Amino acid sequence: MRQFRTESTTESNHLLPSSCYWFDPESEPMASTGSLGNQSNTVVVNAPPESASSKSRSAIHGTLSRIRILLTSRYLPALALAGLVLWQLAALVPELEEFNLHPGWMVLGECLRSALYALFLCFPIAAFLTHESPRSRDNRLLMTCAALGATFLLVGLRLLAPGGPEIWHASHAVIGFAVALTLGGVGLALVSANSLGSSFSFGPQGRALVVRGPYRWVRHPIYLAELVMILGVTVVDPRVVPLLGAIVVGVLQVIRIRAEERLLRSTFPGFGAYATATRYRLVPLLW
Predict the structure, then answer these.
(1) Structural domain includes residue 3
(2) I need a surface site. Which of 29, 118, 174, 268 has the fewest CB within 10 A?
């Protein structure tokens, strides 16, 4: 779920004054004597005053723009993640009932996974509600779709699409390994989100160059944690639709990583040194 976007701001080098001097810009304005032979070589052009209706339209436009930014960058993402928290807590209820009927470490592991993942989602919710405007961002539609797809695709498939036929039957030992894998993934997600703090974001945004915690080992540990959790869940529920969804999410995460790193490299001069010290983007020893 995380991180940036390309935002270029252009400032003009000259401010247009209310009066513009032509022909001889260094001379002082001179009044005409009224004689054709004695006209001043300076002409003063005064900018027309801004009307009240124009000021009102500008104020309304600025207010609407600020509201749109607040909705898209703060409240709507936080609300969407709050929905995921509720969905995760709803999944926790039958897991607790199952643990009450058939206590065991694997059922307990599933309960812990759901509870910890709900806790993890609280970190980005807090970040969206409190973080400052980014130094740079990538506003391309492709990156917005990639971020939303990587975050919500599997949830949407589980709620709206049939799972399809089972590809293999997981043994008891394999299910236990998968549960342990998901617990490790959600633990890594919690630690990484704590290190990232208010720099958390859906799409590529440049807020701060975080190099502490798990970011010392790989450059995108939250994405790694999410993929580890997805792998664990897919092993336990090996059906066609969730498996295809997991593959699509993996591709989207790679797209996000490449876009984020281009943005970070252009925003933070120290990113090159960080990338050299922390060689692997996502999977240690592989990539």
Answers:
(1) no
(2) 29
